[in-house]
Two-component system response regulator (Alteromonas lipolytica), 704 residues
Amino acid sequence: MHVDADQGCVLAVDDQVSELLIIEEALGSYYKIVTTSSPTEAIKLAKLHRPDVILLDIEMPGMDGFELCKTLQAIPDLASSSFIFITSHHSVEMESRALRLGASDFIPKPIHVEVCRLRVKSQMIIKQQAFALSKSFKDLHREKKYLHTILRSIGDAVITTDKNGIVSFLNPIAERLTGWQEKQAAGTPIDVVMDLREASTNTTMANPIYFALEQQRTVAMAMNAKLVSQNGTEYRVEDSASPIFDPLTNTLLGGVMVFRDVTEAIAMSTQMTHITHHDHLTGLPNRVLLHDRMLQAIQARGNSDRLIAVLLIDLDNFKYLNDSLGHQTGDAIIVHLASRLEDIAQNNATVSRIGGDEFVFLMPTCKQLAQINQMAQQLIHEINQPFSVGDEEHRLTVSMGISVYPVDASSPEELISHADTAMYKVKHANKNGFAYYSDELYEGMKERVVNEKLLHKRLKEKSLLVYFQPKYRLADNTVSGMEALVRIKDDDDNIISPLSFIPVAEETGLIIELGNQVLDQSCALARQLLTEGNPIKIAVNVSASQFNDTRFTAIVADILLKHELPAKYLELEITESALIENINSANKTMRQLRKIGVSIALDDFGTGYSSLSYLRNFNFNVLKIDRSFVKDLDKDEQAQNIVMAIVTLARSLDLQIVCEGIETEHQLTFLKRIGCHEGQGFYFTQPLPYEQLKSRLYLPNDDA
């Protein structure tokens, strides 16, 4: 069809030539005019020219205008042509018949040029508008079909909704990922169709399209999102939601959700990250990940007193084994070893393979060196166990170097470097052992190992030495009791300081047996003195482990019964550390001990965190003021004020007061003046075996 109303083709059919001439005059300057007076000829011309407007005279010989109109309308190419009837009749019946046939307008005879021109022009305009509308509709349909094809063909999932989040469209990818068919999903809220959850916690996530609709902006999907389809399949997804606006009015129409399946991409990324940070043979963390773990451990430690240990493990003579038996056997041994080391790892420990036959065992939180020693010994023991490959067994030895942060290293690089240096100490010695980079730690480790073996031996022999330090009534300097203090001798008959072996006993759990043996010897001496007519109360220190042992009260009762010793001649000294592990259990134990009749002293008062609360909650008989306050009495007014305050407090609670660590006349004078009941220290005598001590004692002949 043509672009405007001044172009087009008009076919005029009239049996009167004069009428045709008038039509040509009216329209000839504007349109292509085809005229004929023969209906038969008109049919031929119509097929040839396919006119936009056809003018038909109603009354014509042979075939009138109505018949001709029907014939022309039957031609498919003329389906869009408009028909205008030319008539001199004005009857309603005639007009009705013409309109029923599809007439668009009428031109009355005699023909008026201007009227004829305007009537045809109107039809031309209508034709042009109809054509434009049809073209627009076709274009729109074509564009919609094209866009629909694109949405159904793209690799991303697309879901559209109305402005309330109700689904209106799903493309095939969205159907596959959600498990919903488009017809099934239409009219359903999008958060029902898209079951979004947080990938780590599996908690439900809000669909971003609601935020996009509310805030009228593009909203990205939250990180770590997964989509659970109707059949339960899970997909990791990502992308965004956007609002849809009417381009003319800018009003909100709805929203569109575009997302993609990134499950494989994330899995690939995870795999690549794993490959980058792990040893390909054993799957253990490699040097890169180990460095990161060490940095994390250092940052997490902060200013605490925890230690970080790096144990560098190097297999002795592994190259020879690898070369002689083949790399396949060597690799199998390495894999078995990695598995053993992983089984040992605990408390966030990291096992890393940093070389062919080199491993690192990272201990990120160590309370004390004993833990490191025990772990080193355990690792060597496990590595020394035979490895079975095929039908053969293979045994390995190991050289291990240890570096400790912050004792001898301040960075991950130094930890590895120093552990490597320490490892070579072992390599150049006897192998199959471990050494510390720090000489001080190394010597301390060796001393600890010696003391542990010695302690085991002395406990097995029951050859502990128990020394005694008298307690004196400050009012008259007479003996009121004694405190039992344990010692051990080495194989060269040298006395080992308690500071060297008591921590070892506590770390190894031997402290309970040690405490029980000291308790037994002390009660035996108290029974002896009672039999000799010199009854005296002996105080025995009780460790936290010993006190919190569920058998402790029964053990005390059994030892008293064994020696037939009245409970009033036994005093148990307990520190705050023994009480804080389990307040309820401690209270129960205290009640049981009081029921037996044993005296209970709170030792080292003032050095803990909650001393006053313990005095209120526990029914002690004796309060011992720690030597750290007593030693400063000569020179520190603040220490004097603290001791006076403690004495006043103890008196108000009706507690017996004992001051430890008295070494000078001035200290003794001060403590007497403020009303302290008893004291002990080097001013009187140092701890000694009872046989050496008894000649210095003035023992009362009445009940102590």
The CA atoms of residues 373 and 449 lie 9 Å apart. The longest helix spans residues 113-153. Residues 1-5, 700-704 have pLDDT under 50 and may be disordered. The domain at 458-696 is CATH 3.20.20.450 (TIM Barrel).
